[in-house]
Design brief:
Order of helices and strands: EEEEEEEEHEHEHEHEEEEEEEEEEE
Shape: globular
Number of domains: 2
Mean pLDDT: 88
Oligomer: single chain
Strand order of the largest sheet: 1-2-3-4-5-8
Strand content: 25-35%
Length: about 350
Amino acid sequence: MLHFLLLLAATPVAAADTSPKPEVTRTFKDWVVGCDNHRFCMAMSLETPDGNENQAPITIYRASGPNSLAKVTIDVSMFKDFQLTVDDEWVLHRSPDAQAKIRYCGDDARDLIQKMADADHIFVRDSRDSTSGSLDNHGRTSLAGLKAALFYMDDQQGRVDTSTALIRPGTKTISNASLSYSVTFVRPPASKKTPRRISPQALQKLYDGHGCSSDQLSQNQQPISARLDADNSLFVVHWACGGGAYNFFADTLIVDEQGNMHTARFDIGAGMTGEEVGNIMVNARWIAPLRLLESFEIGRGMGDCGRRRRFVWDGEMFRLAQQEEMNECRGAAGFIQTFNANVFDRKN
């Protein structure tokens, strides 16, 4: 496996292009699949184009490496007193966990995946059907495109024609020439100092620059302040207007110990398109326990699609630490991880 180690401390050094390159997702009929830079891969079921919303969303996970096994999660939160079939074949029953999910791993997951790959649907049946012989359908999840999605996953992990492949096993040795790579950030240690804020006059000037009154702000759009390190604080100012029904914009600022303010820098876009690099974020959120700054572009009101980016402060700018996305607004169980950096705190 090729490891690319990128160490970034408070004082940057001259280097080659270090801009992040998140992976992309692929859609195969009613399934979407993607991997991150470590080649941790996920495949998720989608609602069918006919609008069937009475489904049990399915997610298949697998990490890279010859010894990693696939795992299957089926969300059954919409159903009670049920049993599952792959087409008309009963599935090994598992009780849902506290999150209303059925989980398969190891040989059970592999057996289930092989059955699903050549089938049309997973059905949610009345639990009484297994004894009565009836097949009343409570819900269904399409398996169209699953086989292609799993082949793509195998290919991304160098498994095609090896004994570890899900779709086309063989006798080859799993490839060590994987496209997997690691990115590591070493950030400044946390500081217990009170975050610096900009003056009320400077804040009002920012609102005036957008042509809006601060009276238009809702309670959850108040400025965000957080201590980044001993010398710098984060200050996020939401726009009082100009947003949509569920996407709200904000300016991202850095305030030093003297109270001086300047725009934050990012190594990749945090705005709506995610392409243009600037200091504008969407639905900004500071995740204090992780010391990460999140921008979340929502594709539609129910929040089942879009892109979430989380950034780490390296002492000079914000660097992409995690990315999850779902490019299909079709009721998937979650978002697919397409980038994941290793983040460590620098010791004093």
